[in-house]
Input
Amino acid sequence: MTQTSTAEERFISRLIQEKPLLHVVTQGDEEEYGFLGIKAGPVSWAVNSEILRHLQKIVKPNHRTLETGCGHTTVAFAALGARHICVNPKAEEAQSIRDYLKSIGASTDRLQFILESSDVGLVSLGSEVKLDMGFIDGCHGFPFPALDWHYIDQHLEVGGILGVDDTNIPAVKVLTDFLDSNGTYRLEDTIGKTSFYRKLAHEKNREWVFQGFNKAALDKALGKRSVRIIVKKLIRKVQGGRA
Output
């Protein structure tokens, strides 16, 4: 085991063991989401340890990575040496993550926070930004998961990895249903409620008729069109015979 991998193992093991509370519920959050029973203060909505171990296997030093949302995964990406962009609107959560990384001796030099909602923050990325991996775990309400994918996909290299968390939520499942059938991504791993895909190709045209996800509807439309053409030809033939 190299010195680098030894440090990575130490960071990830400590993260799993300590389970730091890196999310922050504000008083406003408590009032808005009170029906869920959450209280103001630090909390953890972290992915399970298997996801962190999986990231340890697939994320390499200097990989260019991006996630929507934040938490233990942010610590993992940074501790594993990735050049990581985290898109999350809460400054207090970004500070908690920086503080925790420093407390375990992990560098924050390659960690960048974009303190915006993903529908704003992802749009701000320059075309020069290229990614080896993206991880979608921000707002889970429709259409955010699909929007996150739409913008991340524009920067994700062919051969790159896309992680999608909380696939049990219908608004997220819409996205994974698309990825499963469109032909531009291949499912490689599923760990609990988190799926990891390999990007196979760029979409040249995002109009519906070019997407594998819509093939059944296209086949149906083309079938009806073919029937209409045949009927028109038969009508013309019959009318011509009567002339």
In short: The chain has two domains: 3-20+46-203, 208-243.
